[in-house]
Description:
Elements: E1 2-6, H1 18-32, E2 36-42, H2 47-51, E3 54-64, E4 67-76, E5 84-89, H3 105-121, E6 129-133, H4 140-146, E7 158-162, E8 191-192, E9 195-196, H5 198-205, E10 208-211, H6 214-219, H7 228-233, E11 238-240, H8 267-282, E12 290-297, H9 306-317, E13 322-329, H10 331-343, E14 348-352, H11 356-365, E15 368-371, H12 381-387, E16 391-395, H13 398-403, E17 415-417, H14 422-437, H15 439-450, H16 456-468
Parallel strand pairs: 1-2, 1-6, 2-5, 6-7, 7-10, 10-11, 12-13, 12-15, 13-14, 15-16, 16-17
Antiparallel strand pairs: 3-4, 4-5, 8-9
Helix pairs in contact: 1-16, 8-11, 9-14
Bound molecules: adenosine-5'-diphosphate and alpha-D-glucopyranose (GLC).
Amino acid sequence: MEIIHVSAECYPVAKAGGLGDVVGALPKYQNLLGHIAKVVMPMYRTRFLYENEFEVVHKGGFHMGTRYCDYTIIKEKTNKLDFDLYLVDIYGLLDRERIYSYDDDTERFMAFQIAVVDWISQWQHRPDVVHVHDHHTALIPFMMQHCFAYRHLSGIPTVLTIHNAQYQGWMGWEKQNYLPAWDSWRWGSLDWSNTINPLASGIKCAWKVTTVSPSYMAELKYQANGLEMLFEYEQGKCTGILNGIDNKVWDPATDTYILDNYTSADADAGKKLNKRQLCDEYGLDIEKPLFVFIGRLVGEKAADLLPQAIYDALTHVGSKMNFLILGSGDPAVENQLEALRGLFVGYYNSTIGYNEKLSHLMYAGADFLLMPSRVEPCGLNQLYALRYGTIPIVRSTGGLKDTVTDFGEPDGFGIRFNNASVWDITYSIHRGVELYADKERMTAIRSRMMEIDHSWENSAGKYIDVYKSTMPVA
Ligand code: ADP
Ligand code: GLC
């Protein structure tokens, strides 16, 4: 099968979170299964662009409202990612340093989607599946069915994967003329609550819809940022498929970002050297359990609860542990986390920003990883933590519920709690401190966790089954 993944992110080209990791790995594993999976994404001005060679494969243009956009499709020449990578260059719109958070993101991703559909519409052959990811690409199924110029693509199955239903790409109806001329009888396929809602449109128009864990799929029927009824109505075409991880990129035995490589057989010693490096660099005490948080500092991740939880843990539970935080997001949370540095010198430190190398070292050197998420469609951090022998402390929600069991249960290995509250987090930290004191149990849990297989080999095939379900039985 020839599968075209369309996404705003793809590691290592451009990544803001887990979407990048998934789109950088899934196609690789689909190719290993004998398919031809390709990725098309915007051409941002990231390092990857300057450090690799590309060739122009197509040039075209289209109208978006009153603006005319020229676009160029370039292809990476050496198959560096183990799949074909195509970048869409639209001068003045996509060629920027960041992926998101510009005032004209609506126009940027609209233009990106039109360019992709326009390009595919001119191919000599048809791909077997167009697989779009999240709201930035979710208007593509509509365009392929209801925009007059592209209706000849309507027979190509489309699959939408929802990595996060909190973000839906809403835009006012005054922007309807951005879309290539479309059949106005179909306005209902764009609308949700009197706005154009790209994610809702994708759910309505894609042939199949997937989300990134079975529990999140179930939760969406009662907690989907306004789309609950739609998930209920469309449940027949929806499936939850748990994300995998790229075992080649995330392997403590070969990871070049960490100081000392290790396997489950020598994890205690291997982790210790990495922990020493972290503790030396951040002025922490290697003898104390190290709790880390890595991620976007946003409400979904319950990052706003961390400053108080850390403060309470260090003042009330006692200075029995250390914390290291890596993340960026809400400026208020960033400031509070930075302020704790002055209060708890030697026990707490933080780095505000994005740092891929440091994140790997933290998965390797930490003892516990905090994930108190209010919403977590899948979560990759806990899967990386498991692979690196770091005990995940998670709220029971979405993919966290599907991948972490509590060490109090038979064969359990993590710490789970129910409420996104300061109390639940500090109590769980306290449980972690007690567990840390039992060295034998820690070692046993560590080796059990590291043996769990969350590789894409398991999940990649499930997507193939979804694609097959859109095709006539031979
Ligand atoms: P989400 O996509 O919702 O942010 P995931 O758990 O699926 O959450 O994936 C987050 C990914 O982004 C992981 O690879 C994590 O290591 C990485 N990440 C998040 N924040 C940072 C950061 N500040 N620096 C480095 N890596 C980060
Ligand atoms: C989203 C979700 C996260 C998931 C990731 C990859 O960003 O928030 O839970 O792991 O996508 O699917």
